[in-house]
Amino acid sequence: MAKRRSIKPRPIQRAARSAACLPPAPIGNLLLSSLPLEDQQRIFPLLEVTPLAVKDLLHKPGERIEHIYFPGDGFCSIVTVFEDGGMVEVASVGREGIIGVTCEAGWLPLSSAAMVHANTDVCYRMSIAAFRREMDRRGAFHGVVTRYTQALMGVIMQSTACNAAHSIEQRLARWLLLARDRLGADQFPITQEFVAMMLGASRSTVTVVAGMLQKSGLITYRRGRLAIIDSRKLEATSCECYRTSTNLLRAVTGEPT
């Protein structure tokens, strides 16, 4: 078995701004933007906007949850943390989702964390107290959060099955497609070491498989930057888990699948 590599994440140290103080602009997070206007006007003053950088830790293993995060852009991962410091991704979250929503008790399990993997200038965060008050209203916010939570659990279950049943080539193709969807771009910075850690594979294995995808004309990879060249062939190389997970999340806000 390949030795798991650990990384050195860092806590967020930048100051947040009240969303109510910002100039009017489209809401980047798809769940927040799907709410009726009346709910948006009530909830927006409860939000702070904070930039996120690669390796920021939004939640640490076993810590008390203080904020719920609604990414407006960028790419974050929910990971399982091992005793040796290694991590494996169980779900990715972008502007279609929420980070921290599964922590009903207010605490993270000792083996779970949430980490940023792509920079963003806009991430909305809400205090756990405000989040619970909104959930207690049992209105539109409660409905969309509940649907997302159910979809996320489905995605995590699909990811667990995928890691056990599908080849590293299929899983790498799936991961790259999901990263593209989260970032909304066909090109993005990434390291093979990071992808290997997220997939629970060795770097050498990822290097070989990525080379096969590049030779087949599906991707290019140069100096830490990956570009998806043929998304249709990449999806054909992926397993059913990409389509299943994508459809689960799109159904939350009624997007066509």
Classify the helix fraction into a percent range. Answer: 25-40%
What's the CATH H-level homologous superfamily of the largest domain?
Answer: Jelly Rolls
Query: What's the helix count?
Result: 9
The major sheet is characterized as: 5 strands, mixed
Runs in which pLDDT lies below 50 for 5 or more consecutive residues are: 1-7, 9-14
Distance between the termini: 37 Å
Give structural notes:
- With 257 residues, the protein is α+β, with helices and mostly antiparallel strands.
- The protein folds into two domains: 10-150, Jelly Rolls; 167-238, Arc Repressor Mutant, subunit A (Orthogonal Bundle), CATH 1.10.10.10.
- It has nine helices and twelve strands.
- The protein has helices spanning 30-33, 37-43, 128-136, 140-165, 168-183, 192-199, 203-215, 231-237, 240-250, and strands at 10-11, 17-18, 48-52, 56-59, 67-71, 75-81, 87-93, 112-118, 120-127, 187-189, 219-222, 225-228.
- The strands form three sheets. A five-stranded mixed sheet has the order 1-4-8-6-7.
- α4 runs antiparallel to α9 (240-250) and α6 (192-199) packs across α7.
- The longest helix is centred in the middle third of the chain and has 26 residues, at 140-165.
- The protein is globular.
Short description:
Helices cover 39% and strands 23% of the residues. It is α+β, with helices and mostly antiparallel strands and 257 residues long.
